[in-house]
């Protein structure tokens, strides 16, 4: 019915109501006129003085140059003596850091040589230290030590395990002394090897007592045999003095 009556504008007139203003998004858009100012007349900061290139008369150009020179001379005459004072060496190029010396090629060569010698010395010391490194001093359980430790742990677990009596009783074995005696012997040998390695053999050969004590505890007599085959290690202080 509204559209048949002429739409909302017609209905506002028929009902005597004031139509609302048109929304901004529905109003016609107006674009700003683009003006290209090639001469810069609309620029308020434009230079308005006398242009040398626009002077055709040579006399007028000469008068303008003379006036500019006189103005500069007057400004220089008004300067105080403090303003004309120039700090000595102020015209030299400034270095980035205040304490940076003025290096010469000879100084740079000497610095590079000393740095190269220091790097070479550090590399030689590192290689010398690596060459003197004794792998036997590492806490590493391998070979016969690993075999002995595995055998000792297996025998001890079998002899003193809580499930061992039940397992042996199921096959008709009730005596456990035959199994516990070897386990105790292996454990005693491990403890004795640790004490001998820590207090006797390692100090006599200048070896690490803690490392070989643990090796003796884990590897048993195999650690003692391995330690006896090693030569006595020279003290580190002797190498430094040489």
Question: Main attributes?
Answer:
single chain, 242 residues, mainly alpha, 57% helix, flat
Count up the helices.
Answer: 10
Rg, please?
52 Å
Contiguous uncertain segments of 5+ residues: none
* Shape label: flat
Mean pLDDT score: 78
How large a portion of the residues is in β-strands, by DSSP E?
under 5%
The largest sheet is: none
Question: Quick one: how many beta strands?
Answer: 0
Series of H and E elements: HHHHHHHHHH
> Structural class per helix/strand content?
mainly alpha
Q: What oligomeric assembly is this protein in?
A: single chain
* Share in helix: 55-70%
What is the CA-CA span between the terminal residues? Answer: 117 Å
Structural account:
- The chain has 242 residues and is mostly helical.
- Helix content is 57%, strand content 0%.
- The protein contains ten helices and no strands.
- It has helices at residues 7-15, 58-77, 81-84, 105-131, 144-160, 164-170, 177-204, 209-219, 221-229, 236-241.
- Helix 5 (144-160) runs antiparallel to helix 7 (177-204) and helix 8 packs across helix 9.
- The model has no long low-confidence stretch (mean pLDDT 78).
